[in-house]
Amino acid sequence: MAETKSMSIILHSNDLDKAMAAFILAAGAAAKGMDVTMFFTFWGLFAVKKGGADKSKLSKMNMGGLGTKMMKGVMKKNNVATLTELMSDCKDLGVRFVACEMTMELMNVPKELLISEVTEVGGVGTYLDAASEGNVNLFI
Amino acid sequence: MKEDMRISTQGLNCPKPLIETRKALRKLTKGQVLVVEGDHGVSKDEIPQAAADTGDEVLSVEEKGSIWIITIKKG
Known about the structure:
The complex is a heterodimer.
Chain A: E1 6-11, H1 16-31, E2 35-40, H2 52-55, H3 66-77, H4 83-92, E3 96-100, H5 101-106, E4 120-122, H6 124-132, E5 136-139
Parallel strand pairs in A: 1-2, 1-5, 2-3, 3-4
Helix pairs in contact in A: 1-4
Chain B: E1 5-8, H1 16-27, E2 33-38, H2 41-53, E3 57-64, E4 67-73
Parallel strand pairs in B: 1-2
Antiparallel strand pairs in B: 2-4, 3-4
Helix pairs in contact in B: 1-2
């Protein structure tokens, strides 16, 4: 087996389409044996707030929620995993979930309001430590 | 051949077949054999690639119409 590769993702958005991309990539990378760190900052923190995954909306063509509803319907029809399911898969495969401490303060979101998958709170140093080891580093 | 676990990913879309395969492999010990069935086209190639990444050995990839069956020995 080759040396373990690693990936970091900053999730800055809680748009459904962007969060989907982030969690799909994280779960996929972990399934390929990579060490994965996800860092949730600004609007991305809301993706890991309890109930937040259900409130995510499409970044385009939301049409007052109708577009998001339609997209979720199409995703279900095509057996695409939901955000919640992907988050759980990420956790099962050992993805590190790190919440941005500064955002938690700014947005007044204490750790109790975050999903249990988030086990770490950190700052720029935490992210950079992961990213400087990373073979793939993404900002979404 | 002895098979220790079998999972079906039929109907599942990207990247679930890959994820479910990895989750299953994590439950096995070295040398045990996992059989994965599915019908998601890209996963037929991606699962063997991922197995190579994690040091697991693909024993066979069979196709029966739109269904593929991948047999992996945990490394």
